[in-house]
Amino acid sequence: MSDLPKARIATASLAGCFGCHMALLDIDERLIELMKLVEFDRSPLTDIKRFTRRCDIGIIEGGCCNEENVHVLQDFRRNCDILVGIGQCAIMGGLPAMRNAIMHSDEPLRECLEEAYIKGPFTQNKTQIIPNDPALPLLLDKVYPCSEVVEIDYQIPGCAPTGDVIYEALAGLLSGRFQGFERAHIRFD
Amino acid sequence: MAQGKTADQDQVALICERYQNDPHRMLDILRDVQDQFRWISRETMATVAAKTGLTQVAVEGVASFYAFLSLTPSGRVTIRLCDDIVDRFAGLPAVVEAFETALGFAVGQTSADGAFSLEYTPCIGLCDQAPAAMINDVVVTGLTPEKVREMVAALKGGKRPEDLISHRFDALSPYERAKRMVKNNVRHAGAVLLGPVPEDAGLMKALAQTPAGIIDQIAASGLRGCGGAGFTTGMKWRFAAQAEADRKFIICNADEGEPGTFKDRVLLTERPHLLIEGMTIAARAVGANEGILYLRGEYVYLRPLIEEVLAERRAKGLLGKAIVGVEGFDFDIRLQMGAGAYICGEEGALISSCEGLPGEPKTRPPFPVTCGYLGFPTVVNNVETFCHAARILDCGAQWFFDMGTEGSHGTKLFSVSGDCINPGIYELPYGLSVRALLEMAGGEDAAAVLVGGPSGTMIARDTFDRKLTFDDLATGGAIVVFSAERNILEIVEYYMSFFVHESCGYCTPCRVGNVFLQKAVAKFRQGLANPADIAYLKDLSATIIETSRCGLGMTSPNPILSTLENFPLVYSAMVKPPKDRIRATFDIQSAISDARVLAKRRSSIYDKDFTK
Predict the structure, then answer these.
(1) What distance in Å separates the CA atoms of residue A84 and residue A151, rounded to the nearest whole number?
(2) What is the pLDDT of residues B448-477, one digit of tens each?
(3) Where are chain A's structural domains?
(4) Is A41 helix (H, G, I), strand (E, B) or coil?
(5) Mean pLDDT in chain B?
(6) Are B520 and B537 in contact (CB under 8 A)?
(7) How far is the C-alpha of B298 from the C-alpha of B305, rounded, in Å?
(8) pTM reported for the whole predicted model
(9) Which residue in A161, A164, B147, B301 is deepest, having the highest Cβ count within 10 Å?
(10) Which among B91, B121, B120, B125 has a CA at the least distance from the CA of B480?
């Protein structure tokens, strides 16, 4: 087994909370077995910022709420053979997509920012300024799930997914025999 | 009008009393309120609820369901433009522009002085003389921009909508009024319905027979329902006759809402007596004493005509107590107006609507023949079916059986519209090919023919030899012809938007799924679809068909499925494999345009930097 080249994995967190990346650690001691089979390329776990070469698997946490998210996601799509959305935000937009509920306004984005930085009852912002540093990426009109921006091959559900589900998916994908999840593993009630 | 004032609420209370405060007559009550006040306010709903013993939310449920009832003030003259695809191809856009310019506001709005409203409505059953519109209770056809300018000027000058039809409108008989408004365009009169019809001959012969004998005769004739589904009429009547109940009902479904269908309109105008005769025979056969004629709201211009016919028959002893002197044979009919809901053409929804409820279909079984209107056995048949029944009783089952083909006996009314020289009504025996009908109608150049309306089948030139029968191309009568210059995907997208609008919203797959289907078709039109989207269309369609409760959801994907099958190249020509597997439908430029304005800067990723 050690003769085979290791599979290359890249990961990114877009509009997410990093919880799904933390959940990767929940696969516990199986991580040691896993690391015999894979190596990480571009990922916050390695702090590699750009793809060093093409990867076998890209794992995306979070949906797209700004232009940088879109840019990263498109970059992942171009550089990964298989793209996997992990967690509710990547799949459906998740918590950040709550702002999509501001849909009956003429200027939903302005309303959202004013609520967050100025008018909200618990907002403490003495400057009364909405952040607008040139380094900040522009926000999208609404939060998009990853599958609306690029084609996604697989989705790992959960918020965050359990270690078992993540291991099941990765082990299946690495062996080329991934057939979907055990029903009991993706039951949340 | 304010409707908040006590005097107004007294008026509303009077309307309720006109219907004995009966909650089952809710649709009539709300229609009358709408007619008098031009809208239904919250105060009015409270009054109606108090009078009828319902909760206010139940009243609101009905008021908000029907398109012809409005919850905001609508104009004293409400103009409803028929927005069907046939009207669009016949020049609707120019007509709309003329209306908007002449009135000074856009479609969907009401003028500031409350004089005019302008809105769209789906097919109003006048496709053979499109573009058409309803102006309050009258209809105007064959509209042109010049005609529109003249009409608006007359209306602004204080004329009533009725005056647009004739300066001596009030002196005309209801039949003459209907004829002035709408041409019937009978292009081919067949042996059964539109040829010479002796008055009440069927009824007289029926009364000489036992009820069971009547049913035997209808069954032997092979008559099947003409509304589209084609259920055997004899069997339906037999089930209802066998059901034990204190009350039974005969309902005539005159809610032909399928875009492209207008055959019932012609029968209601030219053969109203035959229709009532058929209903009376049905009543005799199943032992019913009460009947309802459910007339679609769009045909309100025929209301005076139908009411006159009913009154005339009551006076002649052909309706009411002891009909034609037969002791114990009592039967009378009330006219129930609809209020602009396609779904009410569905049997269960139609019954719900007659009961004063929102027009939502009922769960089947139990079927209406055992548990229908108010829970009593009910026969619901199409206008044409009742007319056929009366003729069968007159001329005999064998006569009818011998016409048509095996499995589809007798004649059928076809309403032909669209790109042909002679749009109108053709009464022909079953079994004719589409090509033969096109030749009669002068539509030989057709590239596509929609048989049975959007819930039917769209066929292409290579299959024009298919036969118009229940076993091949079943239809409720709609034949819409499209020439080669029409865009198939535009037609499909229109029909999907029609179903989105007309879904009652009860079943999620229909309410939501049809929206997704419409969006997916729009993607094809914009050239943004990828090969996987064809599978997506089929998959989602299968889900909607499988999981919807009534016929609307079971047939709404048909415009897509039948064009995918018969016009596959139209779809495959619009499909592009995605570049780098990035979705073509996601447009980053429009997604960041709001933020660009708010932040007052460009995108550092997606906008070109001109300083370099």
Answers:
(1) 10
(2) 999 999 999 999 999 999 999 999 998 899
(3) 7-97+142-186
(4) coil
(5) 95
(6) yes
(7) 14
(8) 0.89
(9) A161
(10) B125
Question: What is the distance of C-alpha A158 from the center of its chain?
Answer: 12
From chain A residues 138-157, the ones with a CB under 8 A of any chain B CB are 138-142, 144, 148-151
Tokens of B426: 């053709």
With a cut of 80, say whether residue B6 has pLDDT above it.
no
Count CB-CB contacts under 10 A for residue A181: 19
Rounded to a whole number of angstroms, the distance from the CA of B596 to the nearest CA of chain A is 7
Which ipTM score applies to this complex? Answer: 0.92
**For B338-357, what is each residue's pLDDT tens digit?**
999 999 999 999 999 999 99
Selecting from B582, B595, B599 the residue whose C-beta is nearest the C-beta of A74 gives B582
Could you tell me the fold of the domain covering A7-97+142-186?
Answer: Rossmann fold (3.40.50)
Q: How does DSSP classify residue B224?
A: B
Distance CA B411, CA B427 (A): 6
pLDDT in tens, B525-542: 999 999 999 999 999 999
Contacts made by residues A112-121, CB under 8 angstroms, sequence distance 24+: A113/A139, A113/B598
A186 at interface of B, judged by CB pairs closer than 8 A: no
Cα separation of B505 and B439, whole Å? 41
Burial class (CB in 10 A: 0-12, 13-18, 19+), B458: buried
A131, burial (CB in 10 Å: exposed 0-12, middle 13-18, buried 19+):
exposed
- For residue A13, pLDDT over 50 is answered with yes
Q: Which residues contact B72 (CB under 8 A, 6 or more apart)?
A: B39, B110
Between chain A and chain B, how many beta carbons pairs sit less than 8 Å apart? 71
Q: What mean pLDDT do residues A39-66 have?
A: 96
Which tens digits make up the pLDDT trace of B100-120?
A: 999 999 999 999 999 999 999
Domains defined for chain B, CATH in brackets:
6-65 (1.10.10), 77-181 (3.40.30.10), 201-402 (3.40.50.11540), 408-486 (3.10.20.600)
| pLDDT tens-digit map of B208-229 | 999 999 999 999 999 999 988 8
Find all residues with CB under 8 Å of A80, minimum gap 6, and list them.
Answer: A10, A54, A55, A56, A57, A58
Tokens linked to B599: 């932040």
Q: Which residues of A touch B535 (CB under 8 A)?
A: none
Tokens of B321: 């107590």
Gap from A141 CA to chain B (nearest CA, Å): 5
| Helical (H) or strand (E) element with B381 | strand B378-382
Closest CA to B128 of B83, B46, B185: B185
Would the CB atoms of A74 and B580 count as touching at under 8 Å?
yes
Q: Per the structure block, which two tokens stand in for B394?
A: 């007159």
Rounded CA-CA distance B484/B462 in Å is 13
**CB atoms inside a 10 Å sphere around CB B401:** 15
